[in-house]
Each structure stands twice: as structure tokens, then as C-alpha cells.
Amino acid sequence: MAVTHGEDTVFRGIDEVDWASMEHAYGSAADVPGLLRGLASPLPQEREAALDGMYGAVHHQGDVYDSTLASIPFLFTLAGRTGLPDRGGIVELLASIGGSEAGDDTAYGADDTEDGEDSQGLQSPDDLGDPGASGEDKHAMARAAVRAGAGLFLELVTDGDPEVRRAAPSALVRFHGEPPRVLALLSDRLRDEPDDAARLALVEALGLLARLYGSSAAPAVDRLVSLSGPAHDPGLRLAALGQLASCAADRLPQDLVPTVVGLLHTRSQRIRPAGEPVRTSSDTLLGSLRRMRPADEEGARLLRTLHQALGARTGDRIALLKGQLSSPNTADRCNAVWMSAGLFREWRGAYEEPVALIGEQLGSDEERLRSAAVSVLEFLFTLAAPAADRLAALVESGSASRGSGAATLDRPLKALARCGDARAVPALAEVLRHPGVPNETGYAIGYLGPSAAPLAPLLRKRLAEVPLDSHDTYDRAAPLLSALGALRYTEALPEVLRLLHGAPPELRLRDSLVTTVARTLGAFGPGARAAVPTLRDLLTGENAVAAADALRAVEGDPEEVLPALLGALDPERDAAGRRAAAEALGRIGAAAAPALPGLRRLAGSAEVWERTAAACALWDVAGDPGPVLPVFREAWRRNAYTRRTITACLVRMGGAGAPVHDLVRTELASPRRHRARSGGHGSHDVLDDELLLRDCRTALEAA
Q: Would 281 disulfide with which of 42, 216, 287, 421, CB 3.0-4.6 Å?
């Protein structure tokens, strides 16, 4: 690998470092010198690959290793090497190694140097690479090392490379210990900076300064207020408003939303139109991320900052989205669709209007915009109903995968089915008429309710074709079984039993297949009486709980299945089996009284899901709220994912659950989705939250 820019000075001492004794995410750090030298390569692809390697191994997912620490002096030297391309990425890497904004311990006057001068004060690589330090210690050492070199960031704010000037301001704020000096420099640069993107970076740095230093940085807030005024260009004003929203919301204008929408439209008229050329980049993670960037990346960043800062102000955010989605500029509308995803996932609100506007984007000629709209509508389930007409039109136009053998279900069709719209049925029938059925099809059908009944014979036919001994037998059968169970299509009983009888013992995921088959038989109820002998045979095996639950549903006799369920409550059995047994006993009700000692023991388990399942079963079996409600209160607080289970039980409890209804009222009053508070971002989080709200209201009504 060729290296220019004076390797003798840039990498002086690099070969004296014992890299082989150090580690990174994938073992020995002996390759780190090659990565560092790659950052100085004259070839863009090699520089990008080297930076990709630094993030992928030396600073993997934010971790700091001894090799990370040993790299810091060389990274600073590279960042300060005038004329070296792509130094902006190196500055960003240094800032990431130094720690996130939330993790900074930077405070006013907290300068690591003894005399407060601008000396970089960098330690040698050997001093930094302490293999005996803990992970927390290494993060602290990295933060200290980057702060010790922060004097360089003062110089880089005026560097000749615009990309460096874009990366340097936030690094300067985060790691330099003299806020007044930093503020003065940022203000001076805002007057002189010719590059638009660098000016926005300076505005973001002012907001960061205000957040980190609070009242000590009040002049930064005043400067942001000034920058948000009509004397400045729309992009700069939008950036200033976004930063004000995050650090001084009380200084925002009263007419914030119309101001922002007006600025957005004015800005869009001045920038180049959408449809810019495809970006080319190397085949690296960083290259892939660059190719995925929005068409108007700057506009996306400006509005995303404002949306995130507004947080729970859903009324303002909805109004803002409506303005964005009404823009004549395609890139503005595409950005709005992606930003709506964050709003819908995290906050509760009346979203009919923005969802309908997202549906309007399905008629766009811009594929990127249509794809974004479908992606959002997919995870909204019933909340996508205002866009259902547009989805149906798209599906009926022939967009759906009809017998193509595609690995995935056509996304507009999937979104239409998930919102429970019967217009999805004809297209789903076309999909099911061909052997190559995408695995999601069965699960999507489950959301259609009785309107999907015409699909049952086709589901049965496809289930009959599932091979019994393939590596994907379970993957293909489970969705079909789920749909047939939801439709209670007992005519498919022979095909269901074929799987149970014919799957070989060594089949991949055989236990999961048997459990799913048993669940389907239970859903069939008395119509599955022909399966009783088979279910009885399973009562003594690994799938005893699932078989017992199904047998009870089919025959209605709890006496026969109680021994298997009582045995599954044994402390020596696996936790998942104990929880499933508790849930099955709860469905039996008062006839499961012999299980009460085991359920009471399980209600004291150290595992929150076991306690929750046992408490629900205790109510369903004994009807005594005394031992149940304390478990609910503690589980509700500890694990938000238990709330739907708890609330469903509170619905059954009626007035007996009143002592914990304060939890339910607080949940209904909260603007934030319950899984968002637990860091959830799954495809069903919005649906689960809407179902939780439904059950919360029902529980209060039932009382």
C-alpha cells in the first residue's frame, strides 16, 4: 500500500509499538498499523476501507481497546496533516473514541492541562495502551487523551478543507475545556465561513455548547436566537431553530411550525432538484451507508434535529409533518416520511392526517418516495387505515407478487393485510395459488379475521406440500399453521396431523414445529377430536405443556391434562416450560386448584415473566387478588413488555384490579409508547402499544 504525505513524520514510532500484544474486536491488533497507514493512502478506496476497518475492529460499536488508545496519537497527527484527504472522517473518529455527548464529563473549566494552554499534551502510544485497564477505565483514558489533544480542534475550525471544518466544531465543543474561548471562535467563524455545510456545523456546535454548559453558555443561546431571525438564509435559520428546541425551547418563536414550513419551502426552491446522480463508493460499510443517505441529506438532518428536539410536542410535530408532506419538493416529502417513522414509533397521537398524506405518496412517480411510504405503513398495522385506499389501489394495479416465487411478500399487500383490510384477500389468493409462498403470507393473513375465510382451502393445499424432512420445514409450515388456526379451518386437520406424524426426530426445530401444531389443534377446538390420541401420546414428552393445553381445548376435560401441567411447574424444569404451564393452568380456571401451591411458589420467582404468568394464573384459578396485585405492580415497573399481559388479566379481574388502576391511568395519560421507554424498535411495537391502550381502557370500563 503506497503512502505519501511524509510517512516518516506522520507515523514516526509506529513500528516501535508492540501492536501484536494488543487486541481489538477480532483478536490481535497486529493489523492496526496497516489500517492507520491506509488512512493516508493516495487512493480513496483504500482510505475508506481503512476508516471502515478502524470503526469495525479498533473502535467496534463504540468499544475502546488498548489498540484504540495506542492509535490516538497517530490519528491526531493524521488529522492535523494539511493536505491529507478525508481528514474530516478522522476527526469524527477521534470524537467518537473520546465518547458520546451524553457520556462526556466535560464541564465549564474542566481542563485536563495544568496551565490551561493549548498544548496537545499527547501521551505516547505505549503509555495509552494499558492492557490491564477495565473497559470503563479505557473509555476514561480515551476521553482524557482526546481532550488533551483538543487544542488541534481550535486550528481545524479554520482548516482549508471544508470537510474538516464541518467535523471540527462539535469535537472542539465536546473536548476543549474553555467554553468562552470556544464560543468566541465559533461566533467569529460564523461571520467568515464560506461553506454552507460548515456553517450548519457551527450552529450545531453552538447548540451542543449550550446543552453541555447550561447557564454558563447563555451567550450561545442568544447567538442561536439571532441566527434564527430573518436576516439569515433559510438553512441557517432552520439549523438555529432545531438547536434552540433542544437547549432553550422557551426561546422558540410562537409561530414555530408555520415559520419552519415556510423556511423549508423557501430552501427547497433554492437547492438543486431531486433526482441527483447515484453516488459511487467502495464496497465497505461506510460506503453502503453513504449510498443510503437521503437525496437531500442536509435537509433531512435539519428537520430531524428539530423533530427529535420537539419530542413529546406531538401536535407541533404532526403539523410540521403535514407541512413537509405537502411540499412540492420530492426530497422534502421523502424526508418527512422517514421522520414520521420515529414519531409514530415513540409517541402516541392522532395520526390520521399524516398517515393519509403518507398514503398519498404511494402515487408518486419517485420510487424512493413510494418505498419509504410503504416501509412506514408496514409497521403501523391498523393505524395505516387512513392510507388503505391508496394501498388497495397499488395492490389492485398489479404491484403484488403473484406467483413469482419471491422470498418476501409484496410490501404494499403486506401493509394492506396488516391493517385488516379485506381488499387484500384476492391478491393473497393469487399468491397462495402458486407453490413459492413467501413465509410472511400466513402471518399477514392472521390480521384479516373472518374476511380471510376464502383463503383457507389454499392454505390447506400449501400446507400439504410442505416437505417433512427439509431444513426449512418449520419456517414454511409455521405461518400456514398460524393462519389455519386463526381461521379455525378444521378441514385441514389431516394436513396438520401429517406434519405431526411424519416429521423425523432429527428435524431442525422439530420441538417448535410440534408446539405450533399443538397450538393449531387447540385453536380448532372440538373439531380436532381425531387428534386426541396423538395429543395424549405427547403428554409425557418434551412438548407435554403444549399438548396438554391443546387437549384441554379439544376435549374440555382438565382432569386428564393436570398431571402434565403440574409436573411442568417443578423448579427443576426449564423456565419457559414453567411459564407456559402457568398460562395453560390459567386457561383451565378453577378446576386447576391443585396447581395453586406451585403457582404461588412460581409467583415468587426471580424471573419477572415467570412471576407475571403465575400471578395471572393465580387470579384465573383462585380469584384472589391479594397475592396477584403486588406482583403486577412490581413487574409493570421493572419490565414494560409485561404490561400487555398484566392489562389483559386486569380486564378479567374487573373491579378486583382497582388497587393497581393507578398504573393503568398513568399509562393512558402518558404521551410515550410503552416499548419506547424500554428501547424497543421492533416491527410490532406500535401494534402492541395500541393493543395495550385498548386493554387499559377496557380494564377501567370493566371495573
A: 287
- Alpha-carbon distances, residue 124 vs 118, 152, 232, 491 (angstroms): 18, 17, 45, 76
Q: Does 290 score more than 60 pLDDT?
A: no
The cell 473502535 sits on which residue?
59
CA distance 592 to 607: 23
pLDDT tens digits along 34-46:
999 999 999 999 9
pLDDT recorded at residue 287:
52
**pTM for the whole thing?**
0.85
Three cell numbers at 616?
A: 395471572
Q: 69, 129 in Cβ contact below 8 A?
A: yes
Q: Which of 640, 670, 678 shows the shortest CA–CA distance to 311?
A: 670
- DSSP state string for 397-450: IIIS--SS--SS--HHHHHHHHTT-GGGHHHHHHHHTSS---THHHHHHTTSGG
* Grid cell in block for residue 280: 459511487
Instruction: From residue 459, give the alpha-carbon distance in Å to each of 402, 450, 472, 482.
Output: 15, 14, 17, 10
Segment 554-557 long-range contacts (CB within 8 Å, at least 24 positions apart): 554/521, 554/522, 554/524, 554/525, 554/526, 554/528, 554/529, 555/526, 555/529, 556/526
Q: Percent of the chain beyond pLDDT 70?
A: 89
Where residue 272 falls among pLDDT bands split at 50, 70, 90? low
CA distances from 10 to 13, 74, 81, 119, 123 (A): 9, 7, 8, 18, 15
Note the pLDDT of residue 278.
42
| Helix 510-524 vs helix 544-555: crossing angle, to nearest 10 | 10
User: If you ran DSSP here, which 8-state letter would residue 272 be given?
Assistant: P
Secondary structure of 297-309 in HEC code, one letter for each residue? HHHHHHHHHHHHH
**Where does 488-578 show beta strands of DSSP type E?**
none
Averaged pLDDT, 112-125: 41
Lowest pLDDT segment from 27-31, 124-128, 319-323, 655-659? 124-128
Number of neighbours of residue 634 by Cβ within 10 angstroms? 15
Residue indicated by cell numbers 378444521: 490
- Cβ-based neighbours of 601, under 8 Å, separated by 6 or more: 569, 571
At 8 the pLDDT is: 58
Q: Ramachandran region of residue 180, left (φ > 0), alpha (ψ -120 to 50) or beta?
A: alpha
Closest of 1, 149, 17, 14 to residue 79, by C-alpha: 149
DSSP β-bridge partners for residue 27? 24
Question: Which neighbouring-strand residues pair with 28?
Answer: 23
What is the rounded CA–CA span in Å between residue 12 and residue 75? 12
Could you tell me which residues come within 8 angstroms of residue 703 by beta carbon, excluding any fewer than 6 positions away? 654, 655, 657, 658, 661
